[in-house]
Write a structure and sequence with these properties.
This protein has about 290 residues and is an alpha/beta fold. The protein has helices at about 15-30, 40-50, 55-60, 75-80, 85-100, 105-110, 135-145, 170-175, 200-210, 215-240, 260-285, and strands at about 5-10, 35-40, 110-120, 125-130, 155, 160-165, 185, 245. Helix 5 (about 85-100) packs antiparallel against helix 7.
Length: about 290
């Protein structure tokens, strides 16, 4: 299999990540793999399943077929676990039992993969991977996907981490540092989307929740500014043809969408939109 020398950047967005799943499933069916993948939050889940060459896996994890696979907690469990989602189910039972992850293929892949996390002590992004320890790899994925306030902090090597999107929502700068001339960015929100600043009320909530992590709080407060600046930069590079960008052309699902039909429709949109743009992508990669 010919691996194309290019870097793939995958934005997060919780269940909006099914759009990315659809796009990557189409690429995998076409046997198109890029040499470097950087995934953030839900994009990290998509990244590892792309490297392990398992089309359909992220989709099946994000869209449970029955109640036994439902990863959302009810109110009682949310209060007990301090999490809206059963993270043990997603990052332990899923990969090891219910929807097996192909660790062997991942560990032996030539594709470089980086999963973005936010170090709670420094407030900075870290780009992590593991090609030997199954448990540690899933813990890194879990950390990258751990949304502030909604899921607990994850300790990796005795260091606390949260959602990589807090410090680096779309790691284009990291991608540019890899040395690859070609960069493909898959976003999960429409063109023109910009984040709103954190309201004073939510600032108080964050300060109280993460009072032991002042650098993390500062990063959270600056997130909208950094994100919007990056979106402006991406728009400019896309217009100049320097990067290839794929983003939804329909209204995205909510980030904690539960409706199976709604999620499937957004997945299908990602799949068919990549199908429509496939020739453009190949032209970009080969020129």
């Amino acid at each position: 299999m010919d691996i194309k020398k290019a870097t793939l950047v995958l934005e997060g967005g919780a269940t909006r990540g099914v759009f990315t799943s659809g796009a990557l499933d189409y690429l995998m069916e076409k046997d198109v793999y890029l040499s470097h993948v950087i995934g953030v939050s839900a994009g990290a889940c998509n990244a590892v399943d792309y490297v392990s060459r398992q089309p359909g896996r992220t989709r099946d994890c994000m869209i449970p077929q029955d109640k036994s696979g439902n990863y959302y907690y009810g109110l009682r469990d949310f209060v007990k676990e301090r999490s809206v989602m059963n993270m043990d189910l997603i990052f332990d039972k899923y990969p090891n039992e219910i929807i097996p992850f192909d660790f062997d293929t991942y560990f032996h892949s030539e594709i470089k993969c980086e999963l973005v996390t936010t170090n709670c002590l420094t407030g900075k992004a870290e780009y992590m991977d593991d090609r030997q320890d199954k448990s540690r790899l899933m813990k890194i994925c879990r950390a990258s996907c751990s949304m502030p306030l909604l899921t607990p902090i994850v300790n990796v090597d005795e260091t606390p981490y949260l959602d990589g999107g807090l410090a680096d929502s779309v790691p284009l700068k990291r991608a540019q540092e890899t040395g690859n001339d070609k960069i493909v960015v898959i976003l999960t929100k429409n063109e023109g989307y910009r984040k709103k600043v954190v309201s004073p009320a939510m600032q108080r909530v964050y300060k109280k929740a993460y009072k032991s992590y002042p650098n993390l709080v500062r990063t959270i407060f600056r997130r909208s500014f950094e994100y919007n600046k990056m979106m402006n930069h991406i728009d400019q590079l896309e217009k100049r043809g320097e990067i290839f960008v794929l983003r939804p052309q329909v209204k995205p699902v909510s980030r904690l969408e539960k409706n199976k039909e709604t999620l499937y429709a957004f997945y299908e949109h990602g799949y068919h939109y990549m199908e429509r743009r496939f020739d453009d992508l190949m032209e970009y990669l080969e020129k």
